[in-house]
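To the team - pantoate complex, inputs and output below.
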Amino acid sequence: MIARRMALVLVRTIAEARAAVRRAKREGKRVGFVPTMGYLHEGHLRLVDLCRERADYCAVSVFVNPTQFGPGEDYERYPRDLERDRRLLEARGVDLLFAPSVEEMYPEPPLIRFQIEKLADHLCGPRRPGHFPGVLLVVTKLFHILEPDVAVFGQKDLQQLVIVKRLVRDLNFPVEIVAGPTVREPDGLAMSSRNEYLSPEEREKATVLYRALQRAKALVEGGERSAAAVLAAMRDVIERVEGVRLDYVEAVELETLQPVERLEGRVALAVAAFVGPARLIDNLVLDVRDGQVREVPAID
Ligand code: PAF
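Output:
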């Protein structure tokens, strides 16, 4: 007999989402979860593929979370198209799409907030105060609602991934966090819903983030171990492109996200830059030991 896949179920309330997941669990299924803010691209869909490889039942959330946006950021204009997302997820074999309203997730202003030590001191942390506490708030709520056994996060948002892994460790969430490699356009630009903001000319310029990371990688592969030298080379690549405003380039140790002077062990090179109306981020994780340099597309 050929097993027939069930169609995707779209739910808008916490009660419906809980009931659907609990039904799957009662059937003995391992539940996987991919949290997203929607306007899905191939990068998200690869996370879905990973989720389906590791679980019997795959839930995806689409929710543009207001608590992780600061004043003046792009909460209002963040692209949204739930019907398109629904079609893409159904084609990829997703079982449950949870797309709550803001009122459903935040019926009253939350009074409990996360405070993050050390892991948000660098990279995007100081530039987007309140962002990671807002991410942890919504991720915690989504984990409580969907009770996944495994959850998949993209490595493009490396700082978020490292902080969520630590959340799960510190607060004993019974969920395995799996990293999904960054998915790139043919010219290297990391896929992001925010690429939607770019004009064709800006889209072309945006590849400079990838080129700066490739320059850094070539230097490290060539034996350079001084973080200052590699970061200066990255800055140089980026500052040559008119219309691109560098926010930061940093080299950090992977587990602590603290700056390093020497590129040894597991390190991340990370960049953020404004290209036209979009603030874009990208990174590269390297494992440098015994004279060998290995790129780590998905951290464990
Ligand atoms: O990475 C994202 O899209 C968001 O930060 C997340 C994890 C869905 C929380 O809103």
